Amino acid sequence: MKQWKRLAALSSAIVMAAATLTYFPSDTLQNIRLEISASADETGAETTTEPQVWIEDNLTWTLTADGTLTISGEGAMKDYNSDDNPSPVYNNSDVKKVVIEDGVTSIGNSAFDSCRNLTSVTIPDSVTSIGKDAFEACNSLSSITLSNNITSIGDAAFYDCSNLKSITIPDSVTSIESAVFYNCTSLKTISLSCKSSLKKSDFGDQSDLVSASHTLKKTEAKAATCSEDGNKEYWTCEYCGKYFLSDDANPETAKAVEQSECMIPAIQHKNATTRGALEPTETAPGYSGDRYCPDCDKVVEKGYTYWIEGDLTWKLYEDGTLTISGTGAMKNYNAIDNLSPVHENSNVKKVVIEDGVTSIGKSAFHNCNSLTDITIPDSVTSIGTSAFKYCTSLTSITIPDSVTSIGTSAFSSCISLTSITIPDRVTSIESSVFEGCTGLTSITIPGGVTSIGYAAFSGCSSLTSITIPDGVTNIGSFAFDGCSSLTSITIPDSVTSIRNGAFKNCTGLTSITIADGVTSIGAVAFYNCSSLTSIAIPDSVTSIGDSSFSNCESLITISLSCKSSLKRSNFGDQADLVSYTSHTLKKTAAKAATCSESGNKEYWTCEHCGKYFLSDDANPETAKAVEQSECMIPAIQHKNAFTRGAVEPTETDPGYSGDRYCPDCNTVLEKGYTYWVEDNLTWKLYEDGTLTISGTGKMKNYNYSDNQSPLYINSSVKKVVIEDGVTSIGNDAFSNCSGLISITIPNSVTSIGESVFYYCTSLTTITIPDGVTSIGSSAFRDCTSLTTITIPNSITSIGEAAFGNCIRLTSITIPESVTSIGNYAFSGCTSLTSITIPDNVTSIGECAFSYCTSLTNITIPDSVTSIGSAAFYKCSSLTNITIPNSVTSIGNKAFSDCTSLTNITIPDSVTSIGNKAFYNCTNLTTISLSCKSSLKKSDFGDQANLVSYASHTLKKIEAKAATCTENGNIEHWTCEHCGKYFLSDDSNPETAKAVELSEITIPNIKHSYDKNGFCKNDDTHYQPASYNEESEKYEISNAGQLYWFAEQVNSGNASLNAVLTTDIVVNETVLAADGSLGADPDTLRMWRSIGDDAENIFKGTFDGQGHTISGLYFSNDSNESDVMCASLFGLSAGIIQNVGLEDSYLNHYNISAGICASNNGQIVNCYNAGTILGYCASGICIENSDNGSIENCYNTGVIRGFGLVAGICNMNAGSMKDCYNNNDIIVMTDSTIIDENDEKSYASGICNINGSSGRIENCYHVGQVSGADVNNNICNLNAGQIENSYYDCNICDKDAITQNESSAVVKNVESKTTKQFASGEVTYLLNGDQSVRAFYQNLAKEKYPTLNQKSKVVMQLEMIYDESFGEDATTNKIYHIAGDTIALETSPDKAYTYQYFVNGKQIEKPNYTLTGNTKMTVKRVPVEIELSEIDTIQLTCQKKMTMDLTKYLKNFVDLKPVQFQLATGSKLPDGLKLTEDGMLSGTPKKAATVKTTIVLTAENDSTKEMNLVFIVNAPVTTTTTTITTTTTTKATTTTKPSKTTTTKVTTTTKPNKTTTTKATTTTTTTISSYGDVNLDGMVDILDAVFLNKYLATLIQFSDAQMANADCCQDGVLNDQDTTALMQFIILLIDDLPVQPTEK
Questions:
Q1: Helices H / strands E in the chain, number of each
Q2: What is the reported pTM?
Q3: Rounded to an integer, what distance in angstroms lies between the CA atom of residue 518 and that of residue 1097?
Q4: In what order do the strands lie in the sheet with 954-957?
Q5: pLDDT (tens digit, 9 = 90+) per residue, 952-999?
Q6: What letters, b where the CB count within 10 A reaches 16 and e where it falls short, cover 991-1017?
Q7: What 3-state DSSP class applies to 1167?
Q8: How does DSSP assign 1447-1506, residue by residue?
Q9: Phi, psi (5° rounding) for residue 7?
């Protein structure tokens, strides 16, 4: 029984082995170890434990004795099947566990098929797919975990896994095939997550086992508030994250919604309003206002403070954030009289500069001491002077790469700044940029920086290290002064100077390396570097300043090399520290001189400095250097040498120059040369094979038979040098010089002759200079070693066989200058693989490339017209060639024996082809011709059977009847390639019969026109205007003829002349009463401008003869139209005159004008009364060029637009004269066109832009101007001349001109009131000095001037009220119609009368008839004072009296007030006084008789004397008077030192009166802080900068600054004060002020 079992086991193993051998190929079997054994019980042997191994491509399968199968390796598993390609473990009951290792990317088809004892499978994350039948019939497999990277499971993958109870399909699986779990009888659950994209239906019969559910979390409903969103009641799946409006957890029925569908938006403070807003003023910022919500009863958003600074807006928010937006450069400020908006503003904590700002202005954030953060955009390219000075809280800043310059003191005194990166584009570190940045520990200076400015890092006391880049050449004065933490520094080779005080007070500096490029070290450069112990001064330093190393307490040694030019004395007090390195001397023994060599004395050379010495003293301070010549003994120089063996040339033999022989040495010093004198050239052949040819002019031509070159067949010539002056290389000059390997050709050579280098078989390369224009036949023929050659651009032709048989030439570039390639030019160049033929070559000669057996492809340019016979004969490697459409002939055998050529296309241009052109092209299968080709198959001889014609590309043309404008045709076909006509659809070029065009054409019929000139059959055709031969003008009498005229001009007849013989009506009643389109657009005929593009500019004369054109219509409000503009004329350089446009509607999306879009000619006596709409719209013209003129034109039509809108002309560069606009000019703001173009809109009554050559005169505007970003009455931007132009300010209050450029001239451009217009004043002003009046006005009927000559002439009456009116003297201008009678006014004041004069003649009548412009002078004549009789006044002594003297004036009432005063020298009796109003009063004191004269002066300046005699009897009286005077005086002066002085003085004077005087003088004197120019309490380099700026007149000083800057105390500020201040700053003087220097 045991034996049977053993045999059975063996039998089974053999069968298994046989099966394995059957299914595995032989190359795989060698990798498989077949284990055949019986059990230990059956064989009595020990059990084997050796594993089974299969190597399957890139994977290794290992099955161990315990049933574990491990699969390792990288990549995809092979696919198997159970029929003819089973898996290695197919039906293997030993497999109990499968472990697939990481790296395997797929499980192959049938991989574990029928592994019935398999219970466990480990699948790594690297596996992405499971193949079909992969685990079929794995009956023991009860569970399996699939990795989350698997995307697909194949058909029947787990088929018949009868023990499988449940499985979870990961979310990554997107594809599952049929019957995957078929017959899995124990399977109860197939689990999917709610995130899976699979459906139940994907599982077929097992769909009822699929289980999936959302894990829902409920969110309760919540109402929305002002600031927070609310939400509906909803559920969220905690696994897939989806949102639902119900608690249905079934993924197949639950409907997910967007989160937004669950939310109720916040009310967003919808009722909020802005309050507290303020507009900015010149002195105070604006405030945007707070956003207040009444629903919340709170401020929901605080406003911001803002400033408008030029093109930029500064906004400061409550949290301290400052934003700066806009485009362009920031303004520059200063800290004195032009402060930044945020100067010293401690509220600024963060600055955000937005993109578009291009610079940070000077002092922009000066002293913003709370600023901690700033954002600078890439648009910024510069940071101004003092931009962040005193920003003491700023710790770091990122400067974008776009910044190229950082101004002086930009970050000065930013004490919290610890680090900063300077962009690579910055090339200079300016003065004081980081001065006083005490917190700065490190900084990187970019490689592009070339200089470090004055005090750049001065006072950066925390700076521990800095790297100076190699490009820096200059370290400025005091650059690192006070960098006390700096321990070491290396100065690069590029630095040439270290300026004064550069490292002064760097007390921590222990070492410094000065590079060899430094030539000077400034004064006090290392002053007080107290930790510095030693320093080496490089040899390059030639200058060292005073006190450079003073106060360096630890300095022991200043090292100089023996090469240094510096002396101890250069180091002043530190001279004793200087140590020189000794010379490193090398002795040279004495040597006698010989014939050829110099001798020398005994001397020594320093190996370091290279100096020479005659002693061995190595001390640089005592050793005396000598010149090298003092050490040398000259050579004897073969002084007895002579020339021997010289031979003169003969006609048949060359000459010999002779050898130079020295008898002293018995030596030939110099071998001679063989030479030939050939006409004007000398040929010299030296022993080393060098041939020189010198002289001027052409080289002789030679030949190989009877006029051979001197060097013909001379193999000793190896190098040829032709010297400058030789102009040509003669024929056969170097023919057969087989040893020649090098040649130098000068620029003077212009031609290379025939066969020049023929058979120079050693020549490998040659450069032909740019001057050479021709290369002769066979010039380089048989140069078999030649591999490369450069042909200059001066060559125009390559001669016959020029490069024939250059068998090693692999490539050559033919210059663009070459126009022809000669016969045999490159024949036999068997190594030539490619060649580029330039575009200028027109012909390729015979055999030009024959036998170029390596040439594979070639492109022939369009310039070539002929290919010569055998041009490419036997180019056996040629596989491809492109023949251009310019070639007309191909020569005999042109491509014969091109055995690699398979096909070729012959262009239509070829009309001639030679015999056997493609003979013996054994691989040629096709010669392609198009149907257009004139060639026949027979032209190709034996290759006719290879010819293939491209079929005609036929297009059928249906039959069409003739019309009055177009021919008809019969049914036919047209070839789209060759253009021929056919009566059938036969497309075979060899059988199809072409016909003439006339055979298919049906002639057209004639036009018949209606009364308006339009064709009755086809109204797109128009009646021609009749031509008047006498006037040479077309006479237009209807609309059709107008359209015909436009069509003629637009077709190229741009110089036609025309006149209107009547009013033209194109369309009836186009406009409604308000100017809008009143007619149905579908019923209107469209108009196209006369001269509608740049090719058809109108150049003739168009004379309307006073007629009108009405009913023009064009409308297109999108840019899809090909029509350039909408106007009567488009582009004109002619004359347009005497025509009006009425009842017309012109609407173009871009350009619309009444008369002409662009004028380069004349527009005279024209008007528009129609409606004009467009982006650019104007009544007369859009653009008037510098040659254009517009005169006597006006607009009364409706003008509306979107961008540039003007009454007369939008852009003027020419002349505009005597024009007006009398209607509103409005930009339609509801259009989106402006926003799309991101442009501003402009509106003007007359013109938007007046260029520098533009002239506008005698124009006026009446009407509104509105709706645009910029609105004005006359012109928006003026760079030219505007004179004598006006507008009605009662209708439009906008400015006359928005902006005048520097070149602008403006005269008499003014606003006038409606009353002034109605008065005739403007009409008069517009006519001005013109001899012929343009403007007229009937003052009784017309409110505004008109160009209608049928109206009235306005005259000016100029009333000149002369100086007799005093301050009221004036000139009044009154306007009347000629012939008016004017009543002359009388004086309203009885004190005066009026007198009128014209031309000196007084007018007696009370009225005047105006017959022309008149100047009338008015005089105001005063009425004289009339007195009553009065001469004596009797008075009584001591009796008080009062008297009114005015009662003695007869006409006092008319003249009052009258002034009374005593005449000079007159007096009143004592005790009396006289007031100015004529009251005499008082008590006479003594008896007396007094004669008095009183002068009376009336208000009208008339005077009169009143002579009186006073008779008085009166006693003497006494009077006591006490006078007290108090005086207080304050004076302020400046002295030194400070003190306050108060002085009080009291004086009493007696007798009879007491005088008390109090004088108080307070003097306040302030100590002048000499040197503190910027008044910041310190004296530093900034004060010197301020003083220099003042002296350069860049800034102004206050009195205090003037006093502090006077460092010489001489009352004058000049360069002496600057010098004194700088000396004080760098410690050269101890105190200020100093005594000025005498000049």
A1: 12, 130
A2: 0.38
A3: 70
A4: 954-957, 972-975, 981-982, 994-995
A5: 999 999 999 888 878 899 999 999 898 999 999 999 988 899 999 989
A6: ebeeeeeeebeeeeeebebeebbbbee
A7: strand
A8: GGBTTHHHH-SEEEEEPTT--PPTTEEE-TTSEEEE---S-EEEEEEEEEEETTS-EEEE
A9: -65, -40
